[in-house]
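Friendly challenge for the regulars: who can give me the structure tokens for this chain first? No prize, just bragging rights.
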Amino acid sequence: MTSAQPFPEPTNTEAIRVIGRFEAGQGIPDAMRSDVRMLGSLLGQVLRESGGDDLFEDVERLRLATIQAYDEETSDAFGRAAAIAESFTVDRADEVARAFTCYFHLVNLAEEHQRIRVLRERAGQPGRAGATDTVAGAYAQLRSEIGDDEAQRRLEGLRFHPVFTAHPTEARRRAVSSSIRRLSELLTQHDAASEGGSEQRRARRRMLEEIDTLWRTAPLRSQKPSPTDEVRTVMAVFDETLFTTVPHVYRRIDDALRGDESGSSAPIIPPFVRIGSWVGGDRDGNPFVTASVTREASQIASDHVLRGLENALERIGRTLTLDAEDTPPSAGVTAIWDAFAADEPEAASDLAKRSPGEPYRRTLLVLARRVAAKRRNDERGYQRPEELLDDLRTVQASLLDAGARRHAFGGVQHLIWQVETYGFHLTELEVRQHSQVHAKALAELESGEPVSAQTEEVLEVFRAIAEIQRDRGLRAAGRYVVSFTQAASDLANVHRLARHALGDDAPVLDVVPLFETFADLQAAPAILAEAVTFPEFQARMADTGNRLEVMLGYSDSSKDVGPVAANLALYEAQEKIALWAKDSGIVLTLFHGRGGALGRGGGPANSAILAQPPHSVDGRFKLTEQGEVIFARYGEPAIAMRHIDQVAAATLLASSPTVENRTSGAAARYAEIAAIMDRSSRERFFSLVKAEGFAPWFATVTPMEEIGLLALGSRPARRGLSVESLEDLRAIPWVFAWTQARINLAGWFGLGTALEAVGDEALLAEAYREWPLLQTMVDNVAMSLAKTDERIAREYLALGDRDDLAQLVLDELALTRQWVVRLTGGEGLLVNKPVLQRAVQLRSPYVDALSLLQLRALRALRAPETATGSGSEEEQRRLLLLSVSGVAAGLQNTG
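First reply, four minutes later:
Bragging rights claimed.
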């Protein structure tokens, strides 16, 4: 996390004292404090140069007031801060909001930089590789419990499969993200330079320029991105991080497992990462994702991976300057060259002149040419990635036979890992569509009436999938997710539509049910038992070793019955589905539709994995990753490597006897507690959301409707337009709106009542220690509560004319906070997680400043006749949206 010193220290003695005291209480590492003070000093300079001393002083006044209000926790102090926010003109409020938003971007950058420092320090610590939150450590634990052979079998079956989605939760623009990434590189250069030297001065000067760019870049998108824009945004993560990072993850794990043997013989770690994508394939509620968009998304991804492979082959090929006399090529390597020379004699002659007596160098350059030809759709290119893999393995075997072991299992092995992981498709593109859309299309097709444009588009999707499979292989596309699966017939409908589209030439499909609501989760086992009797399912499972994938939705189930009942229902559904699959001899993969926010199943993934029911993981973990989570987890190489290693370790360890016995034993012992919590939390949740007039009240006391104006993503915030019901509201704006109002209700509401209904504090404390599901739930709620602010929440709730509903929320907030503090120990939230506690506390006063600016804009929009300060409706709405972006940056999560 970071220091609370975003700008140069004010000259006012009282201000210095207050800010110094606030900083001193946070325990900030020295290196991090230094980073933020430097970045803050540069931001202060930019503000003075751009807006003059008056702007700088206004920002400082509000900063000081919110720190005092946070420290003193008095109504007078809070009132002073609110009065300052109200006193600004709308133009000044706009500038101040932008200044605090820039500060949060720099805070987040400094935090990331510190995380990288810590990861590097840990990597060098003796015994660190043996920790069970690494794959090497988890594997050692497995071997001690189940023996070498079974542990090796499970390692070989390991699979981590994140699926990137375009769900609109990334509030900042791509231009802002790019500026921050450049700042990160400059901060690294500054660290590496000599103290006070010319290189350090140069880095600082360039950082000042970049922060000026950040300040002057419009923070809000002027229009929504198209689905193709979203595809290209996600591609940046692959180009800058994942394409090269994933092989390094494999290498680091192999190093830890095999020590000096790594790199000189065949690795034992499998290429266990697969990357999926819904970007350009998810058409549930998004009319802008068409079959042509899906084709284009696959083409863009393929182009990126083929360029990456071509460059990697050329780079590694140029280093293989091994002489034929000392390292003779095998007949297989010679055959690759001879076939190329016969096909392209002039190019072969040129390569031979530039690589005389260097058969491996010129052979890898030949492979690069064939990849380039594939990218151009030249018939001389590879047709399938398996062909490239065969050639690479031929080169590897030849090097091994010639005694060049380290070359065989060094750079060449990295190339093999990249092709095994990414193929020629990069991402495994998945299609998602709502079950009702399928039913409507079939009704049209089988009625004999003219087919509508929407139904024709549904059929065209299957033709697009077939084309992608022909060009890039089955892994490139083929999973078809049916949202709101409520009957086995919903799954059969997909195959019926595919036959309508292409007859016997229908694509190979893995139809994946998505169970989202509370009722659907309960019905899931029976639906699956019927679905696997269908001929299409049986044929596909026979081809895949009896594999089946099932998706569980966290977002809508939480919005449906509340976070507590949803978590319990998800656990029960997983338990029953896993038991059914085990008894049926089915190799099950559960696909977790988790969001970044706690109200959508977010939170630390590794702890969630270790709390899953027995046999529900079995070495395979698949989940959705979206919005800000994609860039937070995969945007920086060191952090991406640590995240993948940590999640894979939990995936491997989840099926150990120790973990499974603990999880199943606790679930049985505390089943009665679970039943009480489920029933009481649902009743409490329904007393709020089913109250007459709740939906319009919710839209009044949060910026829910205004959030829909943010150009976050191509998908609409609603499936329809009515504000009279929450049924049609997507889970993302539901969570996002509560987060912006500093209430975070979607992440905690009902837990206090659930724990109070149990009542036995000693029993609950024991359950918290021994029951992973409850511990994960309570810890996540603690984090959610730590980001709430009751003073500000009261201001939002006062916007609605329903004191009864407002008091219901506040009473449950107080009760939940009381029980969470009791169970986690200590005197406040997150005392058992000091690093996270510090992170939240350091940001809170600054988030408060943006919340106060957002409140004044929201009041002006709700009751313009009572608004203070100047500003048109359009200007007030812009201020509100600017504050939304800033609060999202400060809290580090949206929906």
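The radius of gyration is 28 Å. The longest strand covers residues 159-165. Your move, everyone else.
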